[in-house]
């Protein structure tokens, strides 16, 4: 297997609200898609939003679930100031602050927010792991 993640699909309770959060609130570029799904272009992959019940049905599992899902999504940025800016943007867009950005034990700086469906996003600056363009170049 060639290791890569080509798409992350989140099962959402309110597609329109989630589209607004990601497209208007966070500024992710939305692709053309059928009305029952939304796709956003990421750098080298895509984010999909699909109805939670429909996604569970497609996978053949129950749509019920509570608590920690066992994973987080991460957005790595170039600086502590960029972490603070992304966190502020997410909160202004309707995210819930889960853990304020702060220096962390592994030597970086990070915080967590939850999207409208409770999916956890970590926004982090890791000085040893930055591989993307500088924020001002993006």
TrEMBL record:
SUPFAM superfamilies: Glyoxalase/Bleomycin resistance protein/Dihydroxybiphenyl dioxygenase. Residues 4-126 form the VOC domain. It comes from the Bacteria. This is Glyoxalase.
């Amino acid at each position: 297997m060639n290791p890569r993640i080509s798409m992350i699909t989140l099962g959402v309770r309110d597609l329109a609200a989630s589209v607004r959060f990601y497209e208007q609130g966070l500024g992710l570029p939305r692709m053309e898609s059928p009305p029952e799904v939304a796709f956003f272009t990421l750098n080298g992959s895509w984010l999909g939003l699909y109805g939670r019940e429909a996604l569970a049905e497609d996978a053949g599992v129950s749509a019920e679930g509570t608590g920690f899902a066992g994973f987080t999504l991460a957005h790595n940025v170039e600086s502590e100031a960029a972490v603070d800016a992304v966190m502020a943007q997410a909160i202004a867009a309707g995210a819930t602050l889960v853990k304020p950005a702060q220096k962390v034990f592994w030597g970086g700086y990070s915080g967590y927010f939850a999207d409208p469906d409770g999916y956890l996003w970590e926004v982090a600056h890791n000085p040893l792991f930055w591989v993307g363009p500088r924020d001002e170049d993006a």
